[in-house]
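User: My advisor asked me to double-check a structure prediction for RusA family crossover junction endodeoxyribonuclease before group meeting. I don't want to rely on an old file, so could you generate it fresh from this sequence?
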Amino acid sequence: MIGEYHTKKPDTDNLVKGVFDALNKLVWQDDNQVAKVTAVKSYGEVPGMEIVINELK
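Assistant: Sure, here is a fresh prediction for RusA family crossover junction endodeoxyribonuclease from the sequence you gave:
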């Protein structure tokens, strides 16, 4: 199943919200500053998240 989409719980939007809340005051003042989000939930060999933050111009 490696590389296949994970379509079960937890919901992708809940995962994103948790990350946003955790990064408040660390990466941005408030998550309302975030203008673009791309999220993919798929099976991997090792559990985890990859978070990439870029400043939009």
